[in-house]
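new request in #modeling-help
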Amino acid sequence: MSEKKQQVSRRQFLNYTLTGVGGFMAAGMLVPMLRMAVDPVLQESSAGDLVNVGLAVEDITTEPQRVDWKIDQVDAWYESKVGKSAWVYKNDNDEVVALSPICKHLGCVVSWEGSEDYPDQFYCPCHGGRYHKDGQNIPGTPPTAALDVYESKVENGMLYLGRAHPRGEA
Amino acid sequence: MQWIKEDLQQYIQAKEYVDTIIVPLIPYHLSQDSELEKNAFQSEVLSIFAKEIEKELSGRVMLTPNYHYLKSGSKEEELKRINSWAGDALSQPFKNVFFVTFDSTWKKNEQALDGTLIWLPGIQSGDLKSNEMRSFIHDQVEQIGEFIKSYW
């Protein structure tokens, strides 16, 4: 009678509880380790974040316009607000193009139709560097590469810009 | 370009393209309590000004470290030293030397300076982080940029 009642023996009971508790302990140790191993994959890179530059997409025309915005930049010594700017327009396929205004020659700021002599081109006031509307440098002027292109996306009708990439790498 | 390692590496390789220096002239003193805040504020604003101008025209412009001088000091002495700064640059050869300042006393000594003085009528006070100040500086920088470009 008593044999039948005792379906779980003392030995079995101890086995079950010990494996259970041990399993929990092992899991408690392994899960954080696993998380640490996978973590770099989950983390988003903060530098590449796209920022709302305060320009509605419907305001973008085929004529390049300059937008200025600020981002937080943390470097080794302090955190600061850094001003960024871009030339933004819609190309023939109705896609938004955002070009960096930094001249590829020595880093001056280029402007759209900055010289009356060269309409429909970006012009660098420092050494007369010129670029076509799509950012390609014009041979015979000092720059040797095309203007960088910003990562961009459109969300809720607003334009978001990220990092500028050299042509061919983006 | 600024007088920092990174920019100077670029400068040495592209010397023939950089022909303009900008020297900010900033008075310093601790003696007159009533003027202290104003002068310190102007010093901050001028540093920002100079950096912004440099940013727009960085490929052709070298921004020197700020030139500080004692406000009550003799202007003749300072003129000599400032001109020796300019002389060092002109022998490099830089072609254009611009001095930017909020201090109107330089306006009177303009002739004696070996360079072009850009005197900005003072901003007395305000909030550097405000949007008004930012757009004000932005507009001024644009105009000073145009002025410098007219010398090229």
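bot summary: The beta strands of chain B are 20-28, 61-63, 67-70, 96-101, 116-119.
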